[in-house]
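Re-run with default settings, no changes from the original entry. Doing this only to confirm the output is reproducible before filing.
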Amino acid sequence: MSTDKNSGPCILVVDDDITVRMIAQECLAVSGFTVVTMESAKDALDQWDVIQPDAVILDVLMPEMDGFEACRAIRILSNRKNLPILMMTSLADPKTIKTAYEAGATEFSVKPLNWSVEAYRLENLLRMANNTERYYRAQEKWSRTFDAMTDLVLVLNADLQIVQANTAAREAVACNSKDLIGQTYCEAFCRSKDQQANCQVRAALTSGKKIVLERNDACQEGTFLVSILPIFDEMGNVIQIIYTAKDVTKERHLETQIRLAQKMEAMGTFSGGLAHDFNNLLQAILGFTELVTNNIDPDDRNQKFLEEIKTTVFRGSHISRQLLTMSQKIESRKEVVHLNPIIDNMSHLLSRTISKLVEQKVNLAEDLWAVNVDTGQIEQVLMNLAVNAKHAMPHGGTLTIESKNIQLSPYYCEIHPDVTPGKYVMLSLSDTGCGMDKETQSRIFEPFFTTRDPDKGTGLGLAMVYGIIKNHEGQVECYSEIDQGTIFKIYIPAVDNLDESVSLTSPEEEPIVGGTENILVVDDDPSIRYIAKKLLMDAGYRVSLAVDGSHALKIHHQSEDVFNLIILDINMPVMGGVECMDRLREQDANLPILLASGFPCSKACSDRLGSRLHYMDKPFHEKQLLQAVRSLLDFPAKKS
C-alpha cells in the first residue's frame, strides 16, 4: 500500500499496474487529494475499515478479483450508498461499460486517462456525493419524527385477526376502528385472490422469520416498505404479528430525480467540451466550403453539393446545441410573454407537419398568467413532445394541447424539492397512443434513451425537454398507461408583468457589406484563422492574425496601424479571449470586439454584450461574420 498524505479527500486507487498507480498518486496529490494506492482489490477490501476512502478508482482487469466483483463488494461493504466509484479500463465496448454500471460504478473512464480531467471529475463526483449525503441525513431526521405518526401499523393475533390499528392504517382502508378490529389482515388489505394466495403475513407466521418487502398494488395507492415481525411467547410460539407499512413513494421519486440529475450533470460536463471541439471542426468545414463556393461559377453543377455540405454542417451544429440544451449549458434568452400565442403558432405548424391521422385539439385558458421564457426553447419543447405523441399514434388518435393557471402546493414541492410553491402556468400535451409501462417511464428523460429503432431517434428529444424546463426553474411530469395514452404536464413559474412590446416576428435580414478597416483575428485553430482571414480579405478588409490572447496583445501593442476591430475566440491556451478583451479595453474602452466560441455564451459574458461587444456561436457562415463585423464597425463610439 502506498499513501500520499494531504488534507484533501481520500482517493483509493486500485490497479495492478505500478505505473498507473504512480501516475495517479502524483497527479491526484497535486490536485490536493490524499491518495492511497493498492495493487489488488482483495488487499483494498481487507484494509477498507482502515482506509475509509471518500472515492474509489478501480481498474477492471485485475488478477484474483476483477474490478466488477470488487465494485459489487465495495457497495455491500460501504455504509455510504453514494460513494463515488470510478472504473477504468482500456476496454470501451458497450458490454464492458454496461457491466461496470450494473456492478455499481458511478462513472466509467477509458485508458489512457487524462488525470487532470479525472481530478476535476472526482471533484464533481465528491461534490454531488456530499450533496446527496446531506439530503439523506436530512431525510432520515425527517423520517424519525414524521414517519412515527404516519406509518401504517397493525397488530395481528395468531389467527391474523387485527387487534390494534393506528390512524394511518384506518385511513388506508377508509375504515373506523370498530369496523377494522376483528377483521383478518387479508379481508382488510388483500382484496385480490392472488395476494391472499401469496400472503407474506401468513408466511411470516408460519416460518417465524421477519419479512421485509416493498409493496405496490391497487390496495394501497403508492409504494410502501412493509415490515412483518413475528412476536414469540416463552415457548417460542408466534402469538402476534407486528405489521408496519411506510409510504416510500416520495423517497423513490426523489431517488429517481437524484439519479437523473447526476446523469445530466455528468453529461453536461462531457457535452461542454465536446461541443467546443465539434463546433470548431464544423467551422473549418463550413469555412472552406464557403471559400470554394465563392470561387466557382454560380452555375457550376457542384454548387448544389456544396450547399448540401453547408446544410449538413448546420445539422451537426444543431445536434451539438441539443446536447448543450439538454444538459442546461446554454443560457436561455428569456422574455416575459404569454404562452398562448406561442402555442397557437406551433399548433398551426404542427397541423402541417404531423400525420393527418392525428386530430389536434387546443384548449387555452383565456386569463393565462405571463411567464419569463425563451420562446425558441418553448417551441422546441412543444415540437419534441408533439413528435413523440405522433410516434405513439401510428394509426391515428388525438393530440390535445392545453394551458391553464395553477398553484403548486407545499405538499407537491415536498416531492419535488427543486420547485417552490406558488403561481405557475401549466402546459400539457396528451395523446391517445400506445402509452408506456412504468419501467420505460422511469427512463424517458435519460440522455440517449429511446424506444425507437436506432435510425429513427437519438434519444435526446425528451432529455432536451427536461433540460429546457429545468433551466426555466420549472417542472415536467409524465403520466402514462399502456394502451391508454400519455400526458406530459409542464409547470413554468408565472410572473406579474408582461412586456407588451415583445414581438414574435423575426427581424429583417441585413444585407452583406464589406469594408476597408483593419481587423485582428485571434484564434488558436489555424484552419479557422485562415478561413476568417480569407473571408474578410475578400470583403475588402485588412487582416492580421494572432494565435492566442497574449500574442494578440503583443501585435496590438507593436503594430503601427490602428486596429478597428478585434475578433477573439473565447477558449484559447496561454490567454483566453475574455482576459484578452479586458486587457485591450484597459487601453481603449471603445474598441469594437467580436467574441466567437464553440461554447455557449455564459451569463457572465452575455451580461457584458452591447453595441461595442458582440458574441457569435461557432459554426458561423460568411454572412453572419460579415454582418456582425459591419454592425460593430458602424456603431458610433462613446465620446470620453
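Residues 18 and 132 are 33 Å apart (CA to CA). The radius of gyration is 31 Å.
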